[in-house]
Amino acid sequence: MTELASFTAQKPITNRRDNPGMLSRVANSLYWMSRYIERSENIARLLDVNLQLMLDFSDLNDQQLKEHWLPILCSAGDEETFFKFYEKADSETVTEFLTFREENPNSIISCLFSARENARQVRDQISIEMFETLNECYLFLKSRNAREVWQTGAHDFYDQIKKYSHLFQGLTGSTYTRNEGYEFINLGKFLERADKTSRILDIKYHILLPSVAEIGGAVDAAQWQAILRSASALEAYRRFHVDDILPKKVAEFLIFSTTFPRSIVSCMRHLDEDLHRLSGKEQRQYKSAEERAFGKLLSDLNFMTIEEILNSGLHQFLQKVQTALDHLDDHIYQEYMYHPPVDLESEIFLQQQQMQQQ
Known about the structure:
Elements: H1 19-56, H2 62-76, H3 79-82, H4 91-99, H5 108-121, H6 128-142, H7 144-152, H8 154-175, H9 180-202, H10 205-208, H11 218-230, H12 234-240, H13 247-256, H14 264-279, H15 289-301, H16 306-312, H17 314-337, H18 344-357
Helix pairs in contact: 1-4, 1-5, 1-8, 1-9, 1-11, 5-6, 6-8, 7-8, 9-14, 9-17, 14-15, 15-17
């Protein structure tokens, strides 16, 4: 599997002395608070599902374990960082790296620490309940109990992480004012969710190529079921497809479903709506080239079929989605969060000249 780009990392904000700089700082913190929480939940679910899957295939050798866990590292773009600390990829090393390794910016503990720090910076902009939930999660992860819970039963640990995320998102929906800040929280959540769904599906892309007809077997079926469970999509998928779990149907569901909230299309539609609310543009009108490219991809998805995607390459399609989301993330930063530094000496000189001319 070819290595993918790493998850987008939070960019620094250049502070200004005027009000726009303050607004950009708030927008940045709300956006990344939301992204980091969503990211930690997705990683927790992915690790939990794959650990449970290993219970069904406990007789795997080192090479087979590597083939199972390495794509998960690649999907996050963390393979190079991982091998700085570990010699081989297996259940213990990969889960420890993606859960507790603070040197890994995409680990669960790093994401939730960053989410709490962003929340602390905008403490006056969010509800008491939202901050208390993040702070409680932070204290849990800082305690010895977190490691003990993980070592005693990883499922209970990852289940607790998911519950913190669900509680936070529920409190956000019920206690946060519907203003621009809410749009930035939604942008962070849905952009991260769309990206992670594409990466979860991309873990298995090589099995769909070159021919769907070549797929089969108990191991393959179990792995595709794990893909659905990693996206919390198994029950929803079963309501639409009561027969066997078929790779083509799984890919179609995770890409095109308009009713499942973690599908790529569903997340992109939410992103499109929030972008239009922020920009004030009418539907189908876009503020920048990045937004237009994103809108075109969403429009194309309304007419695409899963057969077209599979024939042209699922992996290539998913990379296209991830590239569009990366460009959109850059645009959001440049448009709403970044302000160039102020040259104070030049500003003072210009003000002095203006005063002399009066």
